[in-house]
Design brief:
By secondary structure, the chain is mainly α. The chain contains four helices and no strands. The chain has one domain.
């Protein structure tokens, strides 16, 4: 009886965490892509094509805008 309870509880926890992670990643990626499209004054469909390229474009753009970690900001290295 205890095994079934723990397995059910763990399945619920894993399912909820998977759902939360997917929603968080989707919101983050599309927020970054929307911001990039706004800055470039273009349509979102022109910023990145569908598929795995979405995350690579958004990740590189987000990392390049970090001001509090100057080691990863490409613009800081160009200005020095």
């Amino acid at each position: 009886m205890h095994f079934w309870f723990y397995a059910f509880r763990d399945a619920i926890i894993v399912s909820l965490m998977d759902t939360f992670t997917s929603l968080f990643a989707g919101i983050t990626v599309f927020a970054i892509l929307g911001n990039l499209a706004h800055e470039l004054n273009t349509d979102i469909s022109d910023v990145a094509k569908s598929g795995p390229g979405l995350i690579f474009v958004s990740y590189a753009d987000a990392i390049s805008k970090f001001d509090w970690v100057p080691q990863v900001n490409h613009q800081n290295h160009l200005n020095q």
